[in-house]
Specification:
The chain is of the alpha/beta class. About 35% of the residues lie in helices and about 20% in strands. The chain has a 5-stranded mixed beta sheet, sandwiched between helices. Strands 16, 17, 18, 19 and 20 form a 5-stranded antiparallel beta sheet that branches. The chain starts with 8 loop residues before the first helix and ends with a strand.
């Protein structure tokens, strides 16, 4: 039966270990098969690992890091940390050795779980010698102090640690979109309030819910939506083995709950349309009586979303046109808006009251106000502040109101609209303020555009730096330019004259997580992109052609 009142994350987990011990909790793909972890088995391993952690805590230093791609042991490690009374500190598995060294030293961790990484040989060189390193099961070539070795030796803890409401249970470092990562302190109370608030909208009282984990678990959205919610409802959490198996793993999981950032929804659409010769061919078939309905059902099944009852998008702006396109397929994607500092909960789109162009209605358990153009919110679940950063913590609040840094509007029905990020807005040399995010969302809709970053600080008018989709390489240059020219006209109905882009600069090298131009949640790092190209801005703006190649 469903949990009547949610308790701590570990307590929720133990409820299902006791009431549904044989049910599958975690499913780790291994080729065409799975390594399954029942609730009962998971509880035993979590308890034993918790005992090991308690023996290795040094005084009050109970911060424990997790550095790994998503896997079953990521969640088991997180549970073990809380079971033992520790504070979990997850790190992005895509961090360079230098980036990891910086946040790890700041975090005060003395114990570190390490799983599968692409750059382990570099990472291990910067881990302090006094760190207790625990190697997870899928980390190849590491044979000392492994998860299995520890589980074989340890005995279970009889008593789980009980956190007080205001105790910090996790420190989540931000992805660093707007500067150096900051350690957001999350309390036990925050997680409970968030789960209770989402109980109805997320179908948490339903049985046999299935989730799939592939976005970084160290990000607040994945942690909430998959780990905390999936555990609280007694669901099954599937994982993705690697990028190449993503489609097969998703289809196999056939999740009831699915979270994706806008870039992934866009990639799904591109993959579908490519099989029908583009949007015109697809629309022709979709509107064909009987056959069209069958094709749409087949597409949704092949995506792995035929059983989905909750589809969520967030972390970056998504265009209304893309949401409308999915609605035509019968997939209602609900946009959610929040930040690490408020556990990702500011607003969510009601499933049956979708208002395109907004990020949904403000959650009933929080208040939102617009103060000098900035969205500010207050609630009982917002962060206690940034770890070891009193000055930044003070700057985060206006009395009890959390300053989001986002610009927006709130209508009389409680629907929230994001109009830009205050720190990203720039002033042109003509004295006009421009919000690049809204312009980028429109440009992103163009069939040739894969990535876009609008710049223009101290320039007379904005410019758009764009990366084209890979398939554009098959097109003649004249045809590419002819299609890119359409963008200038497409923007006219939506923007003021001073917001209109003057140039389109085609960047040949894609922006990736690896070259530090995108965050792990696939948002562009605007500051880094501007740093790389700003020395060319003046010459590009003065160039005779409207479309420039770099």
């Amino acid at each position: 039966m469903a949990i009547e009142t949610y308790k701590g994350h570990v307590e929720n987990f133990l409820h299902w270990a006791q009431t549904t011990p044989k049910n599958i909790y975690l499913r780790q793909p291994k080729g065409s098969s799975f390594k399954d972890y029942s609730y009962e088995q998971s509880a035993e391993e979590v308890s034993k690992m918790g005992a090991y952690l308690q023996r290795n805590f040094i005084d009050d230093k109970k911060h424990v890091g997790i550095l790994s791609r998503n896997c079953a042991h990521w969640i088991l490690a997180d549970l073990a940390i809380s079971y033992a009374g520790g504070i979990s500190v997850p790190f992005y598995p895509t961090l360079s050795a230098e980036q990891f060294k910086s946040v790890y030293e700041h975090s005060d961790c003395k114990i570190l779980f390490v799983g599968k990484l692409d750059n382990w040989e570099q990472i291990k060189l910067v881990i302090p010698n006094d760190t207790v390193v625990i190697h997870m099961s899928d980390q190849a070539n590491e044979l000392t102090n492994t998860w299995e070795q520890i589980i074989l030796k340890e005995r279970k803890i009889n008593k789980v640690h009980r956190f007080q409401e205001d105790d910090v249970v996790s420190i989540i470092y931000t992805s660093g979109t707007t500067g150096s990562p900051k350690g957001v302190m999350i309390s036990a109370k925050s997680i409970l309030i968030a789960l209770e608030a989402a109980r109805e909208i997320a179908y948490l009282d339903d049985r046999n819910n299935r989730f799939i984990s592939y976005l970084p678990l160290c990000h607040v959205a994945e942690r909430n939506f998959v780990e905390f919610a999936g555990t609280a409802c007694g669901g099954t959490i599937y994982f993705v083995e690697n990028l190449q198996t993503f489609a097969a793993n998703l289809k196999s999981a056939s999740p009831t709950h699915f979270l994706a950032v806008p870039r992934i929804w866009l990639k799904f659409q591109e993959g579908i349309l490519s099989k029908f010769g583009g949007n015109k061919g697809f629309e022709k078939l979709r509107k064909t009586p009987i056959l069209g309905k069958f094709i749409v059902q087949l597409i949704i099944k092949k995506l792995g979303l035929s059983k989905a009852k909750l589809l969520i998008t967030g972390a970056a702006p998504i265009s209304p046109e893309l949401l409308q396109w999915y609605q035509q397929l019968g997939l209602s994607i609900q946009e959610a808006y929040g930040m690490t500092e408020n556990l990702g909960l500011t607003s969510v789109m009601p499933k049956n009251q979708i208002q395109l162009g907004t990020v949904g209605k403000v959650w009933p358990i929080c208040e939102v106000r617009i103060q000098e153009g900035e969205i500010q919110m207050r609630s009982a679940y917002i962060t206690k502040g940034y770890y070891k950063e009193p000055v930044l913590t003070k700057q985060l609040f206006d009395n009890e109101w959390l300053k989001t840094g986002d610009a927006g509007t709130l209508d009389e029905n409680g629907y929230l609209k994001i109009t830009g990020r205050l720190k990203e807005n720039f002033k042109t040399s003509k004295g006009f303020y421009v919000s690049p995010a809204t312009i980028e969302t429109h440009i992103q809709n163009h069939s040739l555009i894969d990535q876009v970053c609008v710049v223009g600080a101290n320039l007379p008018e904005p410019m758009a730096l764009v990366v084209l989709k890979p398939e554009s390489s098959d097109l003649e240059k004249d045809l590419i330019e002819e299609q890119l020219e359409e963008i200038f006209q497409l923007l006219k109905p939506h923007f003021k004259h001073y917001e209109m882009i003057k140039k389109i600069v085609v960047i040949r090298e894609p922006w990736t997580v690896e070259n530090n131009c995108m965050t792990p949640t696939l948002k562009i790092r605007r500051a880094e992109i501007e740093r790389i190209y700003e020395r060319y801005f003046g010459d590009w703006f003065k160039a005779r052609n409207k479309i420039i190649y770099y």
